[in-house]
Amino acid sequence: MAGSTLEIKDLHVEIEGKQILKGVNLTINGGEFHAVMGPNGTGKSTLASAIMGHPKYEITGGSIHLDGKDVLEMEVDERAQAGLFLAMQYPSEISGVTNSDFLRSSINSRREEGDEINLMKFIKEMDGNMDELEMDKNMAQRYLNEGFSGGEKKRNEILQLMMLKPEIAILDEIDSGLDIDALKVVSKGINKMRDEAFGCLIITHYQRLLDYITPDKVHVMMQGRVVKSGGPELAKRLEEEGYDWIKQELGIEDETVGQEA
Ligand SMILES: Nc1ncnc2c1ncn2[C@@H]1O[C@H](COP(=O)(O)OP(=O)(O)OP(=O)(O)O)[C@@H](O)[C@H]1O
Fold first, then answer.
1. What residues have CB less than 8 Å from 258, skipping those under 6 apart?
2. ipTM of the assembly?
3. Is 113 inside a domain boundary?
4. Which UniProt keywords apply (predicted)?
5. How many angstroms does the Cα of residue 164 sit away from the middle of ligand 1?
6. Summary count for the chain: helices (H), strands (E)
7. In ligand 1, which atom is closest to the CA atom of 256?
8. Phi/psi zone of residue 62: left (φ > 0), alpha (ψ -120 to 50 degrees), beta?
9. CA-CA to 108 of 20 to 30 Å: which in 18, 77, 90, 165?
10. Total domain count, the chain
11. Measured from the CB, is residue 4 less than 6 Å from ligand 1?
12. What's the number of CA atoms in the CB half-sphere (13 Å) around residue 60?
């Protein structure tokens, strides 16, 4: 099955009157893994939140299309139903809703009435994925992320990814707070998703993650724009040399979004 295409064109985003994204261009096709790197505060998480429709982020220009459909016209839940998924940098806790119920209702929200996932099939699939992610089965019955450690929350985000099978996923610093073994387990889960029908945008600060998940393309964000794109070798160079060479190459003095280019 051919995958979906997420097309971001000249995206401008403001938060509380401050211009954060200043013209982001990025296209992710099904089957492709893209990594976005960049110094702190350059707008990477803002890009993720804007794609998913966080109300705080005001789109002041540009467009986002999923298979030609205008994502900016969709409500947040419609974006998820259309096949977009965000693993948040800081996953939220929801008291009173078990992990298992949350997953099942999320899956069913993408299905037609009468075509809900069979309970036994759901449990079997969840158990299998939890085994894969080396998660304690008790976590299925705990309230969503409540009291989960940082690493457990990240595994749980990947459990959601594996269960929901979105068309396009954005993983925001999925590697932060993971110990070395957990990093391998989480990467294995993400790699298992590799398929022509699945596209992925991985926001990360570290080449380390990209040793396990080889990206097709690597992009650097500075000052609210994608300023450089390349292959996996770009991430390796950033790890070795930092960002100064890009700033010099492009004549950028301050990489954050607070300064004009
Ligand atoms: N909800 C918000 N309210 C006010 N300012 C915000 C908000 N969200 C983001 N910003 C500001 O927007 C800028 C970009 O933040 P963003 O989190 O997108 O950067 P980032 O590249 O993901 O950084 P990091 O690598 O540190 O996670 C920062 O200056 C940040 O303070």
1. 18, 41
2. 0.95
3. no
4. ATP-binding, Nucleotide-binding
5. 27
6. 9, 12
7. 29
8. left
9. 90
10. 1
11. no
12. 14
